C-alpha cells in the first residue's frame, strides 16, 4: 500500500468519525431543545387558570341574543387550546372547527355509550356541553364507562365526567 492511499484512508476515517460525533452532538442538542419546549408547555398547562370558564358564563346572555361565544376567540388566542386542537383544524379546517367551538351539545345518558360520546365531543373542541344522567357510577359499570375510576364509585355520572373533563379541557363550558 502506498503512503498516499494510507493518508486517504486515515483522512476518510477521521472525516467519518468527525461527522459521527457532530451528528450525535446535533441529535442530543435537538432532543434537549425538544425536552425544554415540552417542559415549558407543561408548566404553561399547569399554570393555566380556569378564568376562561368564568368568562364563558358571561356569554350566555350573548348567545341568547344571537352573539358568538368567547370560545371561538379563545380558540384563536389561547396557545395551549390552539395546539390541543391543531389536529382537528388540520382535518376539518379552521371555519368548521370554529363552528364546533360555537356548538352546544346535550348528552343524555352517560353510561357505556354516552360517556364515550361526551368524551369525544369534549376532545373535538365543542364549546358547551350539558351532561345529563341521574344514575351513579357503580363497580359493575367501570368496565364500560369512559373515564370513571374506583375513586368515582358512588358519585353521580354527570359529576364524575365533569371532574375529569375539567382536567382535560378547562375551557369548555359544562352545564
TrEMBL record:
GO terms for cellular component: plastid. InterPro entries: ThiF/MoeB/HesA (IPR045886), ThiF_NAD_FAD-bd (IPR000594), Ubiquitin-activating_enz (IPR035985). It comes from the Eukaryota. One of its GO terms (biological process) is cyclic threonylcarbamoyladenosine biosynthetic process. Pfam families: ThiF. One of its GO terms (molecular function) is tRNA threonylcarbamoyladenosine dehydratase. Residues 87-172 form the THIF-type NAD/FAD binding fold domain. This is THIF-type NAD/FAD binding fold domain-containing protein. It comes from Chlamydomonas eustigma.
